[in-house]
TrEMBL record:
Its EC number is 2.3.1.267. It holds the Pfam family Acetyltransf_3. InterPro entries: Acyl_CoA_acyltransferase, GNAT_dom, N-acetyltransferase. One of its GO terms (molecular function) is protein-N-terminal-alanine acetyltransferase activity. Keywords: Acyltransferase, Transferase. This is Ribosomal-protein-alanine N-acetyltransferase. Residues 12-181 form the N-acetyltransferase domain. It comes from the Bacteria. SUPFAM superfamilies: Acyl-CoA N-acyltransferases (Nat) (SSF55729). It comes from Anoxybacillus andreesenii.
Amino acid sequence: MFIGALIETERLLIRPYQLEDVDGIYEVVSEKYFFRYIPEEPPSREGVRQIIEWSMAQNQKNKPEKIYKFNLAIIHKVDNKVIGYCGLGPDDLGMGETEIYYGISNRYRKRGLALEAARATLQYGFEVIGLKKIMAFVDYRNHPSIKLIENLGLIYHFRVGHLEVEYKDFDGQCYYTLTAEEYRKKNPNPNLL
């Protein structure tokens, strides 16, 4: 479910990080403006390697009832190249919820590939892992990401504000959720619990 996961879409292969992904992920996250709406600093190449090793260790601990971090590489089938990442993990504000996240190379944007990867990740979260709810934070200025999240069916609730100093970078993030029940209504599937 976590270690050997392989999600395939029409144009993408999505699988857990592997050490061979260091250069591909580093190339993506090093692009100019990639971190414009992400409240973190871009990692170094060594930082990417450490994140990948840490992610592989988290997959050993992940369980349906507790996802420590489920980082996935997005591989473009035609180019056979890592073009981004997506995944599921604990929300950054410590609310005890499971967050969906994604990022794709500038060169592969505006083709619907980020939506394809995020939709497949959302589906995997509900249909394979059995999550009851998935949430997302999106910067209020990031209109393409807001459109993507809304296309996935997540529902806007509020903009985050008045946070403790340690979470100030998240001020202005929009909070979206989708429950398994809401997902089932939009995606009827007799195999879902």
